Amino acid sequence: MKNLLDSLHEVLLMGPGPSCIPEAVYQALSRPTIGHLDPLFIEIMDEIKQLLRQVMQTGNRLTIPISGTGSAGMETCFVNLIEPGDEVLILINGVFGKRMQDLATRLGARVDTLEFEWGTPVVVEQVKKQLEKKDYAIVAVVHAETSTGVRNPVEKIAELVEDSASLYLVDAVTSLGGIPVETDAWQVDALYSGTQKCLSCPPGLAPITFSERAIEKTLKRKTKVPNWYLDLSMIINYWEGNTRAYHHTAPVNMLYGLYQALLCITDEGFENVFDRHRACHLELVKSLEQRGMDMLVDPEYQLPMLNAVKIPQGVDEALIRRRLLEEHRIEIGAGLGPLAGKIWRIGLMGHTARSANIRHLAEALDDVILKGLGTG
Ligand SMILES: Cc1ncc(COP(=O)(O)O)c(C=O)c1O
User: Fold this and answer.
1) Tell me, what's the pLDDT at 304?
2) Which of the residues 28, 71, 120, 248 has the least number of beta carbons within 10 Å of its own beta carbon?
């Protein structure tokens, strides 16, 4: 029987994730599987927690990877922190803010939203007014909105939430490892991420961190966490303490991958990693502008790792993406929701953020657009 894996070839991943994987991470993934309670594995787990604290800039004890993708990280934060009837404020300017709203509503929270045009940031002044009107158990926002390429002003929103009794919940799926995520300085109470963006590891794990305030809210719940798999009060017993108790079988090899990916980042140095993302972003913008293409987002709020570029007029955008993939083995992302057909999303996440990749994409775009192949 034909083995489909033989048909796999490397694709230059320049979409909204997953990103390119460094060779060291691939090698880590294929190391021998050992038991999830093996003493060496416990040591690796402890190192992962420590490395995550560094990249998340936090001293939080509860800083662990959840088994599951970024959405499992989102779900972990919401199912542990929300009790039915809780007042929750969600700031929405893209797909992932909407997903938060859906999740919080399913959990029986009383959800208020402030919505902003896709491609523009959350307006801090409006958040201020809303927080003056009402007290919330939780205020939630996406740091890097992958659907639009907008960086939301989480640090400014933090100053407002700090003055209230609310817990501050931040989605750092796309930002972590690409721009600074200052969990403690911003007094974030619950933050989650994913491995497949700027951490440059395959999809499958969701690092999270909880402040003491957030842990307290979780442990003092009046109702049980409505999701057995993501109940942190039980997961903690596997990730903390001298005797580790089985909760679910940890995805051992994925955790090797995350461990190695975090080592790659710390070896390069956080500032160097952030500078590389920034420099690549500027190079990409210049290259696109030279080709007559404009960016969607105001430069002040542009994310370096997710670049939303307006599709030139008269171009069959899906055909261009297909040709890039089939003829040049480059993946870029389509627009979502109201931006479908209007933008491409070009990712420069983690290991993908290299000058050579930008030049490769530019040449490929010249081939498929300027030669008129993709014009409809
Ligand atoms: C900002 C943001 N939040 C949440 C998610 C959900 O992550 P996943 O698709 O890994 O479940 C994504 C995925 O792209 C994302 O970009």
Assistant:
1) 98
2) 248
Give yes or no for residue 175 CB within 6 A of ligand 1.
no
CA of 215 to the centre of ligand 1 (A): 23
Nearest to 182 by CA among 203, 202, 157: 157
Q: How far is the CA of 165 from the centre of ligand 1 (A)?
A: 28
Q: For ligand 1, atom 8, name the residue with the nearest CA.
A: 70
Instruction: Indicate the residue type of 204.
Output: G
Closest CA to 194 of 210, 178, 215: 178
- pLDDT tens for residues 307-362? 999 999 989 999 999 999 999 999 999 999 999 999 999 999 999 999 999 999 99
Pick the residue whose CA is nearest to atom 2 on ligand 1. 173
Q: Write the DSSP string, 298-341.
A: -GGGB-SSEEEEEPPTTB-HHHHHHHHHHHH-EE-EEP-GGGTT
For 376, the token pair is 């409809």
Looking at 3.40.30.10, 3.40.140.10, 3.30.1330.10, 3.40.640.10, the CATH number of the domain 23-266 comes to: 3.40.640.10
Class of residue 295 by CB neighbours under 10 A (exposed 0-12, middle 13-18, buried 19+): buried
Determine the Cα angle at 130 with ends 127 and 134, to 5°. 140
Domain 4-17+269-370: top CATH class: alpha beta
Query: Exposed, middle or buried: residue 337 (CB in 10 Å: 0-12, 13-18, 19+)?
Result: exposed
Instruction: List pLDDT tens digits, range 240-258.
Output: 988 899 999 999 999 999 9
Q: Give the pLDDT of residue 376.
A: 46
What does the pLDDT read at residue 197? Answer: 98
The ligand 1 atom at the shortest distance from the C-alpha of residue 17 is: 14
Q: Which of 137, 131, 133 is nearest to 111 (CA)?
A: 137
Low-confidence ranges of the chain (pLDDT < 70): 371-376
The residue whose two tokens read 């500078």 is: 275
Domain layout of the chain by residue ranges: 4-17+269-370, 23-266
- Pairing between β-strand 190-192 and β-strand 205-210 as defined by DSSP bridges: antiparallel
* Predicted TM-score (pTM) of this structure: 0.97
